[in-house]
Amino acid sequence: MPEAIAPAVLICITHSFPFDIGDEHFEDELKVLSERGVEVIVVPRSAVKEQTRLLPQQVKILWIPFRLSLVAKWKALLQLDWKVLRGEFNFVRKNFSRWPALALLRNMFGSLLIATDLCSKLRPVVDRYASQGYTVHLYSYWNDLSAVALALLKSRFPVVNACSRAHAFEIYDERHAGNYIPFQQIKFDKLNRIFFISSFGLNYIRQRFPALHFENCRLARLGCFEMPGAPYTKHASCIRIMSIGYNYSVKRIELLAESLTAVTGLEVQWKHVGTAMHDRSRYEKRVRELLSVNSTVQLQFTGNLNHQQLAELYASTSFDLLLNLSALEGVPVSMMECMSAGIPVMATAVGGVPEIVKDGFNGVLLPANPSPREVAAALEKFHAKSEAEIMSFRKHAHDTWQQQYNAAINYPVFAKELMPAVNA
Description:
The protein is of the alpha/beta class. It has helices at 26-33, 70-78, 82-96, 102-131, 145-156, 184-190, 199-208, 253-261, 280-291, 307-316, 333-340, 372-383, 387-404, 407-418; strands at 8-14, 39-44, 59-61, 135-140, 161-166, 193-196, 217-219, 238-244, 267-273, 297-303, 321-324, 345-348, 363-366.
């Protein structure tokens, strides 16, 4: 008789999914994870409790918002692991070569309160499943304070399998106040696996903190399912640009506008997908002011689009390029989606972008900090190519998606690595 396989549960912590906006790309991953024959619970940390995305039928929701009430803070304080706090203090002293400033200490202390609160609220759930003989898998979609909470849980339940994904903002500490990301050490010490979405990100953290434990770190690329591509014909006098992003400052949407107004000899049709997370009206007003100097640029802010709406946009609209001028990136799923629809990408060579965009093959790589004129010149040069040359770029873009970023290939492999004890 074959040995019976223990039932398993997968608890996934997200920023917001399936509530509000954000974590859009977790949706494709969840489809695959939920087919592994395990119970699945999604734990959104969103302050907004409004479901905006559909879940696979068998997936449950456990809402634990990120913001703590005063009562929750007191409870977390009573459960605080002071040994962990001392370890973080010593880690900062050693790696930052200075005594932590007051602002950093407040960040450290507040971060541990948040992680402790999540840990305490997940503990009875983990305990209930473990006592019933389940194999418990904990997965933070982001390598942030939720991953710290899982590391704390791992200390209390050594038999659970606790993992996280590392994208961009949880790795690059220059994107944070004081160049400090709280509690990196405990994540690398305690988690069973940290899955990096880019080689660049893994190499970055290796160089930044070489004393961390990297034995359990893996490269696990994101992916997407194929987007429908609209029939393509080159327009003789117009270049059609798409851009995508919610963080308008990191995406440098003002630089996008300045660059497109600098294009000469062509009309520009520009669609931007995604509403600003902060200061939306200020950004959009500023962008329109910049565009007012060049009447040949036609802009449409589409707002936030769900997966189906985005697919409909790809199917109905012909784009020459996805333009991404971000200051910092992991490997954007927006680039994978565009390439799956056969759309080449022009992007700044930052973060993991050169891992997906190959200059002169499936797109164009720009300097990390290009001037508007440099971007405009690159757009003009691309448009000057023959339709046959552009079609070659489009084929190579689709091939790149198929070979490296196809969710139907990447996510089943990832699911096996995330839940190695599950046979499905």
